[in-house]
Fold these 4 entries.
Entry 1:
Amino acid sequence: RVTSIADRLNVEFALIHKERKKANEVDRMVLVGDVTDRVAILVDDMADTCGTICHAADKLMSAGATKVYAILTHGIFSGPALSRINNASFEAVVVTNTIPQEEKMKHCPKIQFIDISMILAEAIRRTHNGESVSYLFSHVPL
């Protein structure tokens, strides 16, 4: 997934390999690649308590990244998540609006959201009409 995104954006990439002992607990995290003097963007499907992404942000900063952003599909943000984000080295944590974020944004100014309602509506319309949903991967409606 990382290689595909980096190729489409024509940028280099690094990745963080994580090993879990159990849910919501990272046992080990290893950075593969060079982030020295670069802006790092963490991409993940969801963040719940945000321990993992905050740990990853710290690892990136200590490896020489100049700034760290996170881009997440689903921002659950339960328990200590907001305080962790507020205390982490993120410039911003960007999430989609699959979950309402207005209340959480009041307590955590680093959270920003992207409205994906139009693409979800188009995916539903295409599914209903038997049209290709994968077409949306290369043709995003505005």
Entry 2:
Amino acid sequence: QINVLQAKKKFEILDAMLSFMHAQYTFFQQGYSLLHELDPYMKKLATELDQLVIDSAVEKREMEHKHALIQQRVISLYLQDFSYDDSKVEFNVDAPNGVVMEGYLFKRASNAFKTWNRRWFSIQNSQLVYQKKLKDVLTVVVEDLRLCTVKPCEDIERRFCFEVVSPTKSCMLQADSEKLRQAWIQAVQASIASAYRESPDSFYIE
């Protein structure tokens, strides 16, 4: 009789299983209802996302195009700065404007890093001066060329270098070619000689 009673209790297990299945059904039904309410918003979000992807691709393409144009412009300006006319290699100690010679040179800094910077140099009024840009204020490297010497430098890591030495300091410079280096050296030497011819007496008195 006990076994018969135990066998009849199987309905309790089935009832528990059925209750569990109902709970599962209710859970997923509520989840479906919630997501179904969100369906219009998700569709709208998907549409906006597609548009964002398109806009991002267009913006990226425009930025790449602008970047390419800027690079071309920078390279063009760089090559324009570095290009020089052979007619400008010559110097003139009797130039009406007083500028014996001018052009771009690399100047080695006197700091610990010995960095090289490209500057616009000129020889005028018996001085060696430079500017960072063409219209900047002049920076005097050598105040009186009569007190200086100039010589080419071969034992250095860069080509076409020459050094202007004064009693207080020296300035290491680099030209863009051997022809330009020789022209600058000759221009400095000619300026020194011209300065001696123009005012020898006052120089000796000093």
Entry 3:
Amino acid sequence: CFQNVTQTVEEEKPEPPTVQEIKQKIENYNAKVTNCLLMKLNDDGTYTGFIKVHLKLRRPVTVPAGIRPQSIYDALKEVNLADMTDKRTSFYLPLDAIKQLHISSTTTVSEVIQGLLKKFMVVDNPQKFALFKEMRKDGQVLFQKLPLTEYPLYLRLLAGPDTDVLSFVLKENETGEVEWDAFSIPELQNFLMILDKEEKDKIQQVQRKYEKFKQRLQQTLKEARGKPG
């Protein structure tokens, strides 16, 4: 069984590689790629590639109310649909949601978080979220929070394309207690509405469970009365 362990100690960074070393690493990386998601080295020494980010958010996010999803034309024109309305609503993103991003070697963790929020039209403060790298070692699943200045594509390059070795996860930026002051009044009101609905649903589930149990008991007693002895 895998166990989840969150590491808080930051690793020491080695010396930055030379352009020739980067070129060799990219060639080795692309040789292991089984799809078309290759890395490309630019003339200036930077490189581009793809990363996949798993969204594992346990709390609802805030999005504009009544706004359609962003189209490719909006993205090309850099249209921010969230600015088109002041109305807000909250909902839960699917826990199994995965977003693929095409980024550069100069793209930081902070920019990845902001890009993900923009793609899902999430208007919450980016500081409420954190990017983690997920690794598997000795039967454990290890999560390590990445600094905002880290470069995810370089980590992908070092680990190779196998997501079982390394994957990226977007989670809440846990700092112990929830900092409720960071949420706006509409967000807090939406949280209360969601919690109230979940409470009512849970009560109904318990009531249905014991109602069925009561019916089975009554049926068993009725059948037992009709039997001799």
Entry 4:
Amino acid sequence: VLDSQYGTYVWPCAVVLAQYLWVHRRSLPGKRVLEIGAGVSLPGVVAARCGAQVILSDSEELLQCLQSCRSSCLMNCLPHVPVLGLTWGRVSPELLSLAPIDIILGSDVFFDPKDFEDILTTIYFLLEKNPHAQFWTTYQVRSADWSIEALLYKWNLKSIHVPLHSFGADKEHLASSSMPGRHTIEMMIISLAQSEGT
């Protein structure tokens, strides 16, 4: 049953991003990973189970989502994984005190266009603090009118498209959903435009 809080549902984007992490699992041990907008935290849980040092986060105002993060950790024998309230676009003490990060994860965070700039503001802040980090994100194509290209340019970010077939996520059972509508999933890696070595 789809919960009224869409952050408490495992969307196809989370499954696709989890598949990307699984395919790259040998590179994850010791990596410092932050999942934003984590909800039920499937990608973060997979990263943690593969040996990454993971921090899960969702909006500090979405207490049910933060509880879902904690529950997912307990159900997956990951009681040590911290859960933080981080609200996109808001500089908070929690955001300022984050330890260094290698990878930021976000599945289907580009859901509502009104949040796009807040998300990229937060990503830019994190990448400025961690210039060699990358933002691995999956999103569902919901409208041809929705684009983050101008915002990427504004925030001096670049993106690389990652074809789903390159990590076995183009299979119908992975990127599909029983919900009505179109379910085209895309993946990209976002980094600082002037960053070297990423």
